[in-house]
Each structure stands twice: as C-alpha cells, then as structure tokens.
Amino acid sequence: MPKHPLLLDVRKLHVSVAGKDVVRGIDLQIRDGEIHAIMGPNGSGKSSFVHALMGHPAFKTNSGKALFQGKNLLSLDPTERAVRGLFLAFQYPREIAGVTLRSVLFAAFKTQSAARNPEKKVLSPVKFQVFLEEKMRELHMDPTFAERSLNQGFSGGEKKKAETLQMAVLQPRLALLDETDSGLDIDALRVVAEGVNRMRSPAFSAVIVTHYARLLEYVKPDRVHVMVRGKIVRSGGAELAYELEKEGYRKYGVTEEGQIPLE
After folding, report:
1. Among candidate residues 205, 167, 161, the one with its CA nearest the CA of residue 187
2. Enclosing H/E stretch for 247
C-alpha cells in the first residue's frame, strides 16, 4: 500500500527558551492522515516543541529545519503558519472578556478563507452561524455556548471543548494538541476525542502531546514517540502508549518525582 505524502518533516531541530536548550535535535516525519502521540514526563520538552512549530516568540529555533507541505515553516510568522493549516490547542487557553467565541471563530474563519481561496466569496455572518451550529451539533454542544465570552468563566473541560470546536471550524491540515486531555472529566475527554476522530482523513493529521494513554484509548495513534530531555528516545505503534502507562518512564532515566532536568 503506497504511503501518503509527507506533511511535516522535522530534522535535527534545536529550540531554546530564555537561553536554555529545551528541544535538542528532534527528527519527526508526519504524513497526510497520520495521528502521532508524543509522550513523556514534565520537563521533557514536549510542549516546547509544538509551541516552536507554531511560532511562539518565546521559543527560539537555534538550528535544524521544519518543512510543512514542502515549505520552510520556520520562515513564516505565526499567522502565516495558521493560514497554511497549522493549529495549536493550548494546555491553558487564555480568557478574552467581552469577545464571544462565535466572534473569534468568525474572524479566524474569514481570515483563513480569504487567504486560502481569495477568489471565493467568504460566508456571510448568517451562513456562518448555520455552519457553526452544524459543527456544534456534531460535537453535541449547546449552540448558546458560542455566545459566551471566550474562555471567561469556562471550566477546564469547557475550554478544551471550545478549542475542539475551533479545530472543527478551521479544519487545519495539522493540529498540535498540547496536553488537551489534562484535567478533563470523561465527558469532555470524549468530546475532544470525537472531534479528532470525526476529522480523521487524508486531509487531517495531528500531534497529540500527553503524559498518559487516557486520550489514546479513544483516539488511536499511528505512531507514539517517547520524549526525554528534549529528544525522542523511542518510537513505536499504539501499543507503546500502553507500555508507558503500565511501566512509566523509569527505564528512560526519570526520577521518582517525575521530573527530568534538562541539562
């Protein structure tokens, strides 16, 4: 069976934060339609890696390369990366008072649509509302949820549901999910998993950053990678996640406290 085209090609990527090396020579290749999981304890550089891919200014790329759809990802600003189809779901989404979730989604959708298809007329606010409500029904979400101020007063689970809705509306080519399952109850976990599973296709790939195999019970990854001290030290199939859940990270030099200081 022929392989799908290469979507993301990362080679020997080194990243630092405030002068400290946090990602130290990562190689990662993701093809169209693949779901990858990156697992590892706190301090291993997982979140730093995906934030660097998204272009967060605090994360400096010192060397290496990252090609996205054959283009140099590192030469693009964060907005250009998003327009090209990169999406980051934050571990701790920020609150924006006075701006509804619907307004944020419509603004992002317009910007992205205009950049991707400049000849195509952007949906009107009324048609976008119909489109948005359809996506919310698919995720079993109350339409009134979109009229609340973005993340203000949201529970942890509601914030993750909101980001899952953003992903469903914006239809990224590659979603970077930074510990999306952190602190979720079973209902919110299923909403997130269903959102990812509904999008699975050759036109959608994802990187799931997580400590545990809980989310991976609902979203089966094609590949699982173990990250320690800023490096990927092992890769395997979905079964690797369950091995880590059972055995932990001690064989990779993790302390009993679960912390691995980056040297």
Report:
1. 161
2. helix 239-247
Q: What is the pLDDT of residues 211-243, one digit of tens each?
A: 878 888 899 999 999 999 999 999 999 999 989
Q: Quickly state the pLDDT bin for 204 (edges 50, 70, 90).
A: very high
Q: Which tokens in the block code for residue 258? A: 């679960």
Question: Which amino acid makes up residue 179?
Answer: E
CB contact at 8 A, 150 and 119:
no
Q: Contact at 8 Å (CB) between 46 and 59?
A: no
- State both tokens at 216: 């991976």
Q: Indicate the domain borders of the chain.
A: 6-252
Q: What is the pTM of this model?
A: 0.89
Assess contact for 35 and 196: CB atoms under 8 A.
yes
Q: Token pair 């979905």 is at which residue? A: 238
Alpha helices (H) along 2-124 = 46-54, 78-83, 101-116
Q: pLDDT tens, 19-52?
A: 999 999 999 999 999 999 999 988 899 999 999 9
Helix axes 156-170, 186-199, angle to 10 degrees: 10
Q: What are phi and psi of 197, to 5 degrees?
A: -65, -35
Radius of gyration over every alpha carbon of the chain, rounded to an integer in angstroms: 18
- Report whether CATH 3.40.50.300 matches the domain 6-252: yes
Rounded CA-CA distance 98/141 in Å is: 21
pLDDT digits (tens, 9 = 90+) for 206-217: 999 988 788 888
